[in-house]
Amino acid sequence: MTASTKAIDRHAAAHDASHYLLVPAEVARPGTAQEVADLLVSARDRGLPVTFRSGGTSLSGQGVTAGVLADTRHAFRTADVLDGGARVRVQPGMTVRQVNARLARHGRKLGPDPASEIACTIGGVVANNSSGMACGIEQNTYRTLESLVVVLPSGTVLDTSLADADERLCAAEPELHAGLLALRDRVRADPASVATVERFFAMKNTMGYGINAFLDFDTAVDILTHLIVGSEGTLGFVAEAVFRTVTLHPAATTALAVFGTLREATAALPAIVATGAATVELMDSTSLRLAARADDAPTELRELAIDDHAAFLVEFHGPDAQAAEAARADAAAVFDALPLSLPLRFTTDAAERAALWHIRKGLYTTVAEARAPGTTALLEDVVVPVPTLLDACAGLRDLFAAHGYEDSVIFGHAKDGNIHFMLSERLGEPSGVDRYRAFTDDMVELILGLGGSLKAEHGTGRIMAPFVRRQYGDELYAVMQEVKRLFDPHGILNPGVLLSDDPDSYLRDLKTAPPVEDEVDRCVECGYCEPACPSRDLTLTPRQRIVLRRELRAAELAGDEALAAELRDDYEYAGVQTCAVDGMCQTACPVNINTGDLVRRLRGESASRVAAGAWDAAAAAWGPVSRGGGVALTVADALPAPLVRAATDVGRALLGSDTVPRYDAGLPRGGTRRSPRAAAEPQAVFFAACIGTMFGAEGGGMGSTAAFLALCERAGVEVTVPDGISSMCCGTPWKSKGFHDGHERMSERVLPALLAASRDGELPIVCDAASCTEGLEALRDAAVTAGGDYARLRFVDSVDFAATALLPGLDVVDELPSLVLHPTCSTQRLGVDGALRRVAEAVAADVTVPIDAGCCAFAGDRGLLHPELTASATEREAAEVGALAAEAAAAGTVTAYASANRTCELGMSRATGQRYRHILEVVEEATRPRPAAPAGRPSTR
After folding, report:
1. Can you say whether the dihedral through the CA atoms of 458, 463, 465, 469 is positive or negative?
2. What is the DSSP letter of 597?
3. Which terminus of the chain is more exposed, N or C, with fewer CB under 10 A?
4. Pairing between strand 237-244 and 87-90?
5. Which residue(s) pair with 750 in the sheet?
6. How many degrees, rounded to 5, is the angle at CA 274 between CA 300 and CA 457?
7. What is the pLDDT of residues 493-534, one digit of tens each?
8. Residue 504: CA atoms inside 13 Å, Cβ hemisphere, count?
9. Which of 480, 564, 623 is nearest to 187 (CA)?
10. Are the C-beta atoms of 583 and 825 separated by less than 8 Å?
């Protein structure tokens, strides 16, 4: 176990997705259940509270503390699929998406389906009793959890799956065991308590402890297991959980049902729910007005004069398209009878379904992006009995108007009576806090008056802890207090969360957001970016890079120069040098932030004039410079590797590790010079990437440039290579380092040449390195933004071009038994992962993309400057590739390894010990014509 009291670690960990902020005294990273037990005993002896944090996506303040923050995301990340997928054993650091990826191969999935599945982890799913859009209460965590391994505050570690688990609990924790049975009998003996519990837990309900366990289970260990569910880290730590899984229904058909009024919509809800629709998502009129502004909104919605309209996003699921369509057809009569304002059309088209879901899921983005700088976005949820849904929505809209919350949207899971709403507030100003208090008081009265619960999905946290007594009454609140005392008599686990006798506790430790800079100000700190970040296990995540900029600004405003200086110093390596600037954070960000843009700007601002001038000079003479890099690698390859490595290590010591790359024996010889190529009737312009000049092909192969040209010739596709190609570059090296002048110089050379070569944009421009294709698009977009006339330039990655233009003209001669594929961050951002897989499947009988595949973080020269970054980023994928290689070796089959970018191939070869090549090299070999057999002798192949 590691523990840190460094300012950068504590302040980075202070932020989660909620609107509360507490800076921990210490950040610990336990690696085993026993280390958690030791931490709890130590914290108790030191008088420090402990809070567990994994994904950090909780919205109600249950993941922050001023004591010890135990980060459990880094070590607890294993999942074992059991019984052919019927069950799964998971540790708390795995995200829901990661677990479901493993289960999908078996046609199964987890029951809980939270919208934050890309980032929320199993620890939070159990701690918050997660549900979601489709699972209701039948398939939520409480209902699908089978057993768990829990670490109690005393340090006792209990596996509730064991046959004698109840006896073990009685022996290790006799007071807890007896107390749970006594509380069971107390609740069951009180008819009023039974009625209250049954009423609230017939709905989605995460308010207070899950005291329905006293009615649902008889033994102390089963009651304990289900009290842990939804306890928000206040009763124990879940080191492992076993779930019963549910059937995966991958096929879906989706439609938007728009009604003239909210009343008409809610009146139709019972009939829609009765059809068996998997999801019925509500959007009010404000939601629809905001959604209609989106570029991909349906035309009929954009043209609708929205007044009091409301809509349901309705979806039917099935194991295949036919089953989903059959379910829709069975419901046709119901939908035909509805008083709809727009024609209803169900669709199975992926793009159309994505556009419809963007209406619903994009609401958070729209409201969060539109909020004023310095305000905090608050996403809340409540639940009411479905018959009172209209009154709840109407009442909330009245409260928004009464308290001056403009453009506050209402949406949610209509079939469950589960409403979400969003507010933006200035929590750093007394007037903002007063308004928030007044609104909350009125909202509590409204929802409880309708027989609802103040929390349905997001957990009680700090935000609703003072209102638990009001919802349940004195008797059941006393039961909950006794639950807490029995489990945690010293009160060390997450104090102030879930239960609070202080009526104003929810107004303390509120997070403020001082304006800093554009990328920072837009961030809502949701954490969706974190699982995709290659530096997440080494230094910082994108969210942490952003919040540390806020923390630095807050320190400056407070005049705490000592803290500000420490944060600046440590941020240089953790925040700037070890960011791969791969843009993968943007693919998951609901407000479209690319933290790499922030880091590139910071690099440019901190770079010396000497470095900027040197890179500008390199842009001016890129032909000789790129060839010189290749020659240097060839010379280095001929020398003893330790000698070259020692020389680079000396340079790194003198000039800095972010300036001088580190040589290792795994680097190849230099590549070949690029040359222009004429064509009589070209179908495309070929922009051979300069990376092939600097880095030679793996194992003495031909490289992607030669492979692409060979494939074009073989498929009968003519391409031209522009004059001056040897001095051209996509501009990525300058952009990634923040050197604007060099980037602009390269743009002025490359774009006019490509415009001419492509016949004024008539021909596509194909590049043989995915990151360079993306770089060319960025080069064009920057020039267009600056007023350049280059919008008609069309860039196509060679993988996409091969899938559409080359494969039809190629014959596979030697099919590979199997191939392991590494999609790159650029193939994902370019949207060509599908094409990459199709090309691979054309030449291999079996193609595997590792579940843990992600950005390798080689990132141009980043893997040479900071090899520890690539090692960390590839660790889990490399382990999976190693297992696949062992399986292939045991079966006696040959496996090839491929990617779509030379530096990524270098990074993956270094990480796995396997020979990664560009997929085009693999295709060239598989389609290479066999040599003709000598006359009179038949071929033996």
Report:
1. negative
2. H
3. C
4. antiparallel
5. none
6. 80
7. 999 999 999 999 999 999 988 899 988 998 999 999 999 999
8. 3
9. 480
10. yes
